[in-house]
What we know:
The protein is α+β, with helices and mostly antiparallel strands. It is about 30% helix and about 35% strand. It is built from 4 helices and 6 strands, in the order ααββααββββ. The chain has helices spanning about 15-25, 30-35, 65-90, 95-100; strands spanning about 35-40, 45-50, 105-115, 120-130, 135-145, 150-160.
Amino acid sequence: MTRHPPAIPPQFEDEFITGLRAIFEEKIVFNSVLGLQVVELRPERVVGRIAMKPELVGHYSFNRLHGGVISAGLDAMGGLAVMAAIGARHMDEAPVQRLHRFGKLGTIDLRIDYLRPAIGDAFELRAEVLRLGSRVASTRMEFLGSEGRLLSTGAGAYIIS
């Protein structure tokens, strides 16, 4: 049996990273309202950050991030991971062409498990694609506190037609 070394994921061009960051942080207005920022954008994994703001806390808890914000953040990061995976799949195209492939991306299933209260000043969100099919992508996401403690997990399915 011949062993093959693991494939090295392609590296994105600066133009693609800048364009995808602009789509995610600016053109998707809800992400802008949440304050979601892209920290790392690689073909196999994306990392984001969200800072605590007074308007993001729950109505009855003045120091905990609202569960809806956690869910929306994880959903957005799952979508970003799919965008990165699609971009990596089509590296033969120019960056601007790849950036036009995301118009019909949408969530079709989302599961969030809240493990601990989200208390802190800033949070890290991570996402990766488990499977990228021709029509549906499956993702796994994590929501961590500033000290790296796992606070919530998520799994999502996205239509990529």
